[in-house]
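Q: What residues go here?
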């Protein structure tokens, strides 16, 4: 009998996170202090993060043990299934083998709890009573709300305004788990008030929401900041996904010829592909394809340089592909892919040519999402739908060439809270938007001078 799902038992769940930093062919450029331009120290980060996470951010230890308290919560939904997409393969009439690692089975419906639970744990361990964060489409805010709920921590979420109103059900999810959620820019912080004074109708951006959350955290002794993507320790926590996928593919007697995933800040896809990086660096033939929206073409149009992670310039300078920290993206539906920068680890690997990036318009992305849903039954979130479009194209190319490639898709979550976007697509109201190069140049003019 053909196995549609490759399942790991709970006792087979990885008990350590994989740290790629020791395996990189060249060292990762350090984060810099925005005032001095010197590499940041643990003391510099202490007002924002608990020391347990700071140590992970800078660690060169190959594997970092997952605390039992975190593992016990992970086991509520982990290990997650690896699906063989037999029905999609048949619909495409392709000789390719398509597997997808599905993170939509988590209570929050996405991959985000993998780091939210860990971050809440390390904050609780150090006596933190309250956490502040930002969220775009709401996957991260809802995941952290759940994590804080499990550990008895108060949670404040600054949600990008356009998503706050486009996706109200994620706000309701956060509030159900006990968090307070406000649209960003808000009147709750000075950075938010400054933005609203300049543009009362500002739709918001992740960079603005980050500024608000960081300001909130540094102005209160009982609060730390939490980030759902970009930073090293966040990508570290997501590597449990890729480690599971590797074990599951071994059970299926397979190894991918290509791995495809979407990138907004980079944590979802990095969590899948990072455990495969040592294989690639040792000469294994493997394409790793990162997919982003043309409306926010960070890696495909941005330069690789140092920039702030937020609009107000409160964060350290990170070397990354960036559209400029003042970039305000258009209100496209893939809200989780609207960050101006890219994770330093993902940026570094792209700059070295280890991984590649492509940008897509949203109409064909939703066309691919509907095609996937009608074959596999799962309605994907708009974010991983970008990767689905590339997977379908690659599978069709295999049909033309006759090649029997194995493709691994990172399916980071379901689209049950994104049905307004599907409604717009099905009603013919969805419009493509390619971010103009002159707008990119305008934002890049504000890059920090080192």
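A:
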């Amino acid at each position: 009998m053909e196995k549609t799902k490759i399942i790991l038992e709970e006792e087979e769940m990885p008990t350590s996170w994989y740290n790629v930093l020791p395996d990189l062919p060249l060292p990762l450029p350090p984060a810099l202090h925005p005032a001095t331009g010197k590499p940041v120290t643990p003391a510099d980060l202490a007002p924002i993060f608990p020391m347990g996470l700071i140590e992970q951010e800078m660690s060169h230890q190959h594997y970092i043990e997952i605390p039992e308290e975190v593992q016990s919560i992970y086991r509520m939904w982990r290990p997650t299934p690896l699906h063989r997409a037999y029905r999609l393969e048949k619909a495409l009439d392709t000789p390719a083998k398509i597997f997808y690692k599905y993170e939509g089975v988590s209570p929050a419906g996405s991959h985000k709890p993998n780091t939210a639970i860990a971050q809440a744990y390390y904050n609780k361990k150090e006596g933190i009573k309250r956490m502040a964060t930002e969220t775009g489409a709401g996957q991260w805010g809802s995941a952290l709300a759940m994590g804080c709920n499990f550990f008895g921590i108060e949670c404040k979420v600054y949600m990008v305004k356009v998503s706050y109103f486009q996706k109200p059900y994620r706000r309701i999810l956060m509030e159900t788990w006990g968090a307070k959620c406000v649209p960003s820019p808000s009147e709750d912080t000075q950075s938010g008030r400054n933005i609203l004074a300049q543009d009362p109708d500002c739709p918001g951006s992740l960079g603005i929401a980050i500024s608000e959350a960081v300001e909130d955290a540094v102005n209160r002794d009982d609060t730390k900041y939490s980030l759902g993507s970009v930073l090293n320790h966040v990508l570290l926590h997501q590597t449990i996904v890729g480690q599971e996928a590797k074990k599951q593919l071994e059970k299926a007697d397979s190894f991918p010829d290509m791995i495809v995933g979407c990138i907004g800040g980079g944590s979802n896809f990095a969590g899948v592909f990072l455990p495969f990086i040592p294989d690639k660096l040792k000469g294994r033939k493997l394409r790793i394809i990162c997919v982003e929206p043309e409306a926010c073409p960070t890696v495909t149009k941005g330069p690789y340089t140092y920039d702030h992670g937020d609009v107000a310039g409160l964060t350290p300078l990170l070397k990354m592909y960036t559209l400029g920290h003042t970039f305000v993206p258009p209100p496209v539906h893939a809200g989780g892919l609207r960050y101006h920068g890219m994770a330093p680890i993902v940026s570094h690997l792209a700059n070295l040519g280890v991984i590649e990036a492509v940008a897509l318009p949203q109409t064909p992305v939703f066309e691919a999402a509907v095609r996937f849903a009608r074959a596999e039954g799962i309605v994907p979130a708009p974010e991983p739908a970008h990767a689905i479009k590339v997977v379908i194209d690659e599978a069709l190319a295999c049909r033309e060439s006759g090649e029997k490639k194995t493709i691994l898709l990172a399916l980071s979550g379901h689209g049950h809270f994104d049905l307004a976007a599907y409604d717009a697509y099905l009603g013919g109201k969805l419009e493509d938007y390619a971010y103009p190069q002159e707008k990119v140049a305008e934002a890049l003019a504000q890059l920090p001078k080192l």
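A: Context that may help when evaluating the design: DSSP finds 19 helices and 15 strands in the chain. The CA atoms of residues 6 and 252 lie 7 Å apart.
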